[in-house]
Write a structure and sequence with these properties.
By secondary structure, the chain is an alpha/beta fold. 36% of the residues lie in helices and 17% in strands. It has helices at residues 74-77, 99-110, 121-128, 142-150, 159-174, 194-207, 222-236, 255-268, 299-307, 310-323, 349-356, 360-368, and strands spanning 3-11, 20-27, 30-35, 44-47, 52-53, 57-59, 80-85, 135-141, 179-183, 210-214, 239-242, 273-275.
Length: 369
């Protein structure tokens, strides 16, 4: 058994205790002692003076569902030893027979090739366990559940379909999935009624696992979205995690305090509610997120058909413009698939619109097409 002593570092142990100078004795995979100690004669001593010593970090909100399978070193190099994938309603399972439906739905976030998709949580987690870079925990994506059962259909599903979703969610949790996630600003999840979410959250509560949500809105609808999720927690008893809490757009910044007050009140009522947020001012998502999500019924194929229809295109453009919260000058292109457009990477929609002499919303529709 190997013995290691991390000598003279500043220990930040994750318990909330103040940082303190300490040595750390590790035997095999076990931390044996933290404090001022004399290194055993057979120990490997690593000098840590001037450095911080901490447990591995947990990336609680990742979309590296496919990248974790590649044993990539980037996360470990930043101190991340565990990450939670399957967020925002997107998980690479359960895959339908025609995996292209799942690819069409999720690959804008997953950034994989065209050959992925697992029929069950167990199959995915078994492969993830062979990744030596990080420990992987996965949520079951609500959008992926719907895609597996009804494809890109929007709106209320039949009782038979909802029964299937409940069963598949329960099976996935039994196979090791750590919880359930929704993406209620993404089609098809955006079209799900409250009753559907309540049924699925009751499954999560029965299994004692976590429900994480990308809510229906973080800008104009922030307060209403928080209230809906708190109501789900109250009615079902599930443990609630609100993903990437924020207030989008200057006109909505004053709503953040009111939203936090609602969450704190719920915690005072003994609801198990938490949230996470990122420490920077830019979010990242797919460009279709800006569109009204009803335009994605039928998937990308359905969207492209609507954009080819003049009246439908105008309807989509008008709704997109009316619901924009952050301003075209704040939307920057980070990635494009078409080689001819890649010179636009790093530019804002507003800048591209000016250079082309087009309206910004038309630039968005042109890039999607």
């Amino acid at each position: 058994m190997s013995t290691i002593v991390l000598k003279g570092g500043t220990v930040i142990d994750g318990t909330g205790s103040p940082p303190r100078p300490s040595d750390v004795l590790i035997s095999g995979s076990t931390i044996e002692m933290v404090g001022v100690l004399k290194a055993p004669v057979d120990a490997r001593v690593i000098e840590c003076r001037g450095l911080a010593v901490a447990p591995g970090f947990i990336d609680s909100h990742s979309h590296s569902d496919l990248q974790v399978l590649e044993n990539r070193p980037e996360k470990v190099a930043q101190g991340v030893t565990a990450e939670v994938v399957g967020n925002c309603g997107f998980s690479p399972f359960p895959a339908p027979r025609d995996r292209r439906l799942l690819y069409d739905f999720a690959n804008g976030l997953f950034c994989g090739d065209t050959d992925w998709g697992w029929r069950s949580a167990g199959a995915y987690l078994e492969q993830a366990a062979r990744s030596t870079a990080t420990t992987v925990f996965s949520l079951v994506g609500h959008g992926s559940l719907r895609i597996a059962r009804v494809g890109h259909q929007l709106g209320e599903v039949t009782e038979r379909d909802l029964d299937w979703m409940e069963h598949k969610l329960s099976e996935s949790l039994e196979e090791g999935a750590c919880g359930f996630s929704t993406g209620l600003m993404y089609s098809p999840g955006a079209s799900a009624p409250f009753a559907e979410l309540e049924r699925l959250c009751r499954v999560v509560a029965r299994h004692g696992k976590t429900y994480a949500t990308h809510m229906r809105g973080y800008g104009d609808l922030l307060i209403e979205a928080v209230e809906e999720q708190l109501q789900l927690a109250r009615r079902t008893g599930c443990r609630l995690q609100i993903s990437h809490f924020q207030a989008v757009g200057p006109r909505n910044w004053n709503k953040q305090a009111a939203a936090l007050e609602k969450i704190e009140k719920a915690v005072a009522e003994d609801l198990d509610v938490g949230f996470d947020c990122y420490p920077y001012i830019a979010g990242s998502t797919v460009l279709t997120q800006l569109l009204p999500q009803w335009s994605l019924e039928g998937g990308i194929k359905g969207l492209l058909a609507r954009l080819a229809d003049g009246a439908e295109r105008n309807r989509i453009a008008a709704k997109t413009e009316a619901s924009l919260e952050q301003g075209w000058q704040n939307i920057l292109i980070a990635s494009l698939e078409t080689p001819a457009n890649r010179g636009l990477i790093g530019q804002t929609i507003a800048t591209i619109a000016t250079s082309r002499g087009h309206e910004p919303v038309e630039v968005v529709l042109e890039l999607i097409q």
